[in-house]
């Protein structure tokens, strides 16, 4: 019997915490994330066309569904030019090649930004939660101020001030997401520091810093790591959003947000494919990271 | 697709417009017109800070009346009326004459002309306008520049002297322009210069102000009423008056009831800001707006088959060129410049960037201007480009990697939809030759600062500079003559004593044949040195309701509302 079911049996209440179930949705999300991670490594190498070079054939629509088997057969036999599976855009770029190459930019930015946010936020959260004094209170208020601004606007301002580059984008996102980890870690540390293991560690003569780092921190990282999955998803979305408004990745880099922005003008002409395919890719990726985060959170709570 | 075009787009258009300006879904009345633009005028002063912005100019030309313009030649294949540059006609001038012995123009002004405020036009209005130009009291000495370029006596650079004892008197109108009577003026030139008449047609620089109305709004701190002219209206004798102006939103023009050529057929014109090109397109197709502009070539192309919409255009004076700064290495190497010129895929750019509505540009002068001379020096020839690259000292592009920063191809980020395909085509063609091109989109204001003020754009695409004065010499003084010799917008820092000397000679040449030969020689030198790398000359286009007639093109590329009728 699971923990939740035992609790329900004791209290007579229906279980509010369910065991994590690795159902179809989770498997689907894990597959999507896995594919995106693989594409981040090999995407540009397996793309049928150079994702940043014009094929000088613009606005070619994706092949009709009925034509796909024939095109696949030709591809297997090595007959004819490689099809433009997702069509081409206004510049003659192959949309399929760009969609599968984009994870290298989007995922790298998101993962690095999240990593730096962790490196920045967790130590501050640990100090603020374990050593409570006026200095740590000031740290928390600073963190509150950063969090009080809308993330998108703040990111735009930071990138505008620092200059438009991938490195600055990573730094800006890391600064903006660090307060989430500060608050999460602090709250977990505060609940851990009153536990018996801390008293026991003091009794055997460990220093406060040693107790914080060796015992409290490892026990406080669960929610933080769960949050990582969600943050990476949001970072992908934010990167794409910034590129959409021209404040993120520069053309002609293959990046989903940039692709949507470039194709948006042509939507009214009925040329939907340049925007819709990268849009689907973003939606699937962000959704999958969110599902995995939800799954990890349930797992942690149990 | 048909469902999307015929049902969804009109509904979306109606919703967009209703949401943005709160109008109903009824069609515009025959005496009204709604034109959707990227922006509305930011200011209206001839010497104001926003004079270079096309939508600002579009607002100004509806209000300001010029001394002369050009007689219409007829309609082109698109149904757009085009001017005959060989036949200037009087607007505020009834006639004019020139005495070469005394270098004096005599201008006879039109009678019975009234401004929006009801004031009668006289010689005092012209004198006031030129005295204001000479005061160089505005943000930009735009009006002064054209009079200086026209060699009007005493309109010299002394107005900018740091010593007030020199600049003070130089800024006051003297006897170079005199009033003979209320309807006659005499203008003296320092040297013979045929640009005088050409420049009088440039309404955004030489439109005539209503002196009485301007003086009414003068203040001790602003005696030339720059604030009034820039932020309220440009009081003049033109066909329209401003009746409402909400900056960044809309400008409403009402026909001037006193206009001497007769009241405009369309009484009320609303110029509405709709920044997204796609939204403008949808609203036009829904029938809520009558004119749109600033679309990509492909959007115009798609509108050609739309019901109730006409796309009209003209090969006027717009072109796209590449700037390579002579002060930035390695662009001081002429062979490298020529190699790049031979590596540009001109016909692919015409297809990808302009939907076929462009032609390879073979000079630095607009193709429609008198004295245009085509050069066949450069065509897409990658083998020749490789050979020239080797001759330049960079075989296979070796050695160019150290100049990676110089090869950032800069363009206006707001024009991504138009210029994105072009810069990608250029990059795709140059990179395989070993030329390390990267893209550098830059906000328009920043681009303008680097182009006009700092002049430090190393490698850039430009599609917005055009000479409004219809003369090859005008264009070359504006863009290629060195700063020391009077060049104003020499963004590429080109300095060639040969060009300066030829222009000094051609500027004063009264023999048309000799002058044409000198201007042709200048064009050949500029093309040899790739002073600009002209890529394509493209159509200036508008899309409008098929009920609208009378669309005409003028060299400032701003549609004249007065010419329009249903």
Automatic annotation (TrEMBL), chain A:
It comes from Acidisoma cellulosilyticum. Signal peptide: none annotated. It comes from the Bacteria. Pfam families: BPD_transp_1. The chain crosses the membrane at residues 22-42, 107-131, 151-178, 230-249, 269-292. The lineage of its organism: Bacteria, Pseudomonadati, Pseudomonadota, Alphaproteobacteria, Acetobacterales. It is found in: Cell membrane. It is a multi-pass membrane protein. Belongs to the binding-protein-dependent transport system permease family. The keyword Transmembrane applies. This is ABC transporter permease. GO terms for cellular component: plasma membrane. One of its GO terms (biological process) is peptide transport. PROSITE patterns: ABC_TM1. Keywords: Cell membrane, Membrane, Peptide transport, Protein transport, Transmembrane, Transmembrane helix, Transport. Residues 103-293 form the ABC transmembrane type-1 domain.
TrEMBL record, chain B:
The keyword Nucleotide-binding does not apply. Residues 88-461 form the Solute-binding protein family domain. Belongs to the bacterial solute-binding protein 5 family. Keywords: Signal, Transport. Pfam families: SBP_bac_5. InterPro entries: Peptide/Ni-bd (IPR030678), SBP_5 (IPR039424), SBP_5_dom (IPR000914). GO terms for molecular function: peptide transmembrane transporter activity. This is ABC transporter substrate-binding protein.
